Amino acid sequence: MDKRIASTAEAVAGIPDGATVMIGGFGGSGAPIELIHAMIDRYRATGSPARLTVINNNAGNGGIGIAAMIKAGMIAKMICSFPRSSNAEAFNTAYLAGEIALELVPQGTLAERIRAAGAGIPAFYTPTSYGTELAEGKPVAEFDGTSYVQERWLKADFALVKGELGDPMGNLTYRLAGRNFNPLMCMAAATTIAQVRQLVETGGIEPESVITPSIFVDAVVEVPAPQQEEQLVRDGVEY
Amino acid sequence: MDKRIASTAEAVAGIPDGATVMIGGFGGSGAPIELIHAMIDRYRATGSPARLTVINNNAGNGGIGIAAMIKAGMIAKMICSFPRSSNAEAFNTAYLAGEIALELVPQGTLAERIRAAGAGIPAFYTPTSYGTELAEGKPVAEFDGTSYVQERWLKADFALVKGELGDPMGNLTYRLAGRNFNPLMCMAAATTIAQVRQLVETGGIEPESVITPSIFVDAVVEVPAPQQEEQLVRDGVEY
Amino acid sequence: MDKLTNAQIAWRAAQDIDDGAYVNLGIGFPEMVAQYAPEGRTPVYHTENGVLGFGPAPAEGEEDWDLINAGKKPITLKPGAAFFHHADSFAMVRGGHLDVAILGAYQVAQNGDLANWRVGTKGVPAVGGAMDLVHGAGRVAVITDHVTKDGQPKLVEACTFPLTGVGCVTRVYTSLAVVDIEDGRFVLREKLAGLALEDLQAVTGARLHLDGPVADLIVPEAP
Amino acid sequence: MDKLTNAQIAWRAAQDIDDGAYVNLGIGFPEMVAQYAPEGRTPVYHTENGVLGFGPAPAEGEEDWDLINAGKKPITLKPGAAFFHHADSFAMVRGGHLDVAILGAYQVAQNGDLANWRVGTKGVPAVGGAMDLVHGAGRVAVITDHVTKDGQPKLVEACTFPLTGVGCVTRVYTSLAVVDIEDGRFVLREKLAGLALEDLQAVTGARLHLDGPVADLIVPEAP
């Protein structure tokens, strides 16, 4: 079995207009910048993929990554927990102009909804957001005297994630706190595309050290010297 | 912070009569035999802990471990997925004599209920068992045209688990397929007691290699040459 | 009546498993399917207790009892294997990540209902992962003798034994035939060459429908 | 009116954190609490993005942007640290594993309701982990100025800003007092020595109840 793909361009070539795309990372840590930029390149060249729904904790920073997707006009809707940040002008501008929709989800609920999708759990109850405006319209139930909100799984057509090591079967590890949403998104998407800093041979990752088992991954592309979103933002880079 | 305990006897000294105790392992892999036997020793010496509810995938084998607890008369109820096996005479005898209660839970549901307890999720929906006798009396709901059964979290007072490496803070790793229910049970019990083959210094487990973070563990006891349940059963050992 | 051996049934089921497919084989008879993966195809086997990518049993005396499958039998690892905990393992099952699950059966109904965990109400009940495995996999196939030891049909209009899952089975490989389940009906795809349709129907507990030609069910003599 | 500095409020909150406690400090002002852990106590800090056991920011130029906290600030690791994914991270929060969460507030109501994520309906809403962090921890404490910049009470009968969570706060450390929330009431535990009860009540939006003696709120001049 060989899930290796030669280039980021090839890896994202099958994402259609209107797709729902999960993008891993928390801020810049674990963000698959090169896969995102390959999508932008394709959009500039072909007009696709357009009208995307993007799921990420944030909504982009500065002029690169998801922010650059927003500026390019590729995103119709963001599902995230924290679209506001010091350099989130791209989202802010588009949102306040009514050009982009927002589904705001508490961070832990976002993680759990994604995990639920991966685990075949269509709905679950959480204390989070009970009694707040983010629970409006959602079913509520009481268990053992406490009230909880029912939340639904959150699936995607594609997940783009950033790993540290990957093998041809699709086993992945992550670097430091770059893990964050990445392993969950691998589980929740119909097609998961991983960029990894290093492709090792099959068997090159200890079975006890695998964080994302190969069953959750469909394509692996090596990006040996990945860019770091935070550094690009600080350097004022516009993609 | 130092969660080290000097002996298995001391580690299990605080488990009261009537407690609900999760015991890790799947068959013999990852089974904390020495902690179980320490509980039996204490029961023989003091009459406690008695009337336990025990949660494990199985219900003991041969004459050691959980089977020996059953023979000793310590267990009032088993919650498990597969109490029947080639050497499960202890449970079979007690069950057919009406001396022990059984809550039978599908294996994946058992794992998910334990995880839900650890994650603060009081209830969730699963396709598993829908339309079967194991779903009788449980709420049913339809999502996207498919029917699901509502299951509740499963908590415990204590969890006894078997790790490979442990550090004084309580970080754990597991050996091979000995992982199984152990990391989940660490999350779901009020007090988690881990036996580990080797206690290393704090920092001796790579942060990326930790499987159970210390927050889920309350006590760690080193058992340098742990017995293997399967071998004991094959050797016909009676504890 | 001529019929296939268990090895031949397992062989036939193995022919439908693609290279690189993620597969769970139920405890017992279904485990046999792994022996017959066609040349050049390398399925990846999943076991409920948290291993992906395991291989056959080790040589006697080389067992490591922390390295077992859901049947508690010792296994080995193939390159690219991974360990994970039980919740992640059943996420793979329930979450639709497996391509194929192959299970045994007491009865399969024409609507896809499966009964394979319990034949009555006596003794000690034990379910294991049976009720989970019937949900989520891309295909849930059954391998089974066509009839019970005393000649009763195992393919039935409605299960009389306690159910494992509702409407979950998509294909049945029996000792006499290959039958798909579509729109609440048994659709006959293959049958033994020497077996007349009416004789097959006679040992089947529900109507066998035809949808195009019925192929001969051809297997090696001793796979 | 004399009042504590933010550093002094953070110092006071830090005195109630036990050695070995697992603690989440909200982004911003609450992060300051970590600077004042008493000698001999080593709390273990949790951050939502999947790190347990992190230490202070690295020296300038030594940042690794894959090693950040929930505020996206660079951090360092202490011995015994662990990484995990976001679902496990919020299992720690929601599942009751944290001993203490210390958060900021726009308003705290006498029944423990907290408003700290949004002051109105304008602009871009952003919630992050705020609504999760108010559930599960053994104690959910707030640190805050006693009043808003324009002198309005932040301790109120009922929140007027959008809620973060219902009945979740157990203690409030303010620039003037330490107040517990018990049975739907504010119970005054400590106040600045020179501050008259009626003056404190005057800047508090709900009745302050007494339950035993009120201690002096004593903090170092420059902690």
From TrEMBL, chains A, B:
Name under which the protein is recorded: 3-oxoadipate CoA-transferase
Organism: Marinibacterium profundimaris
Domain of life: Bacteria
Family to which this protein belongs: Belongs to the 3-oxoacid CoA-transferase subunit A family.
Pfam families membership: CoA_trans
UniProt keyword annotation of Transferase present: yes
NCBIfam families, sorted: pcaI_scoA_fam (TIGR02429)
UniProt-listed SMART domains: CoA_trans
Keywords, comma-separated and alphabetical: Transferase
Single annotated GO MF: CoA-transferase activity
UniProt xrefs under SUPFAM superfamilies: NagB/RpiA/CoA transferase-like
KW Hydrolase (keyword) present: no
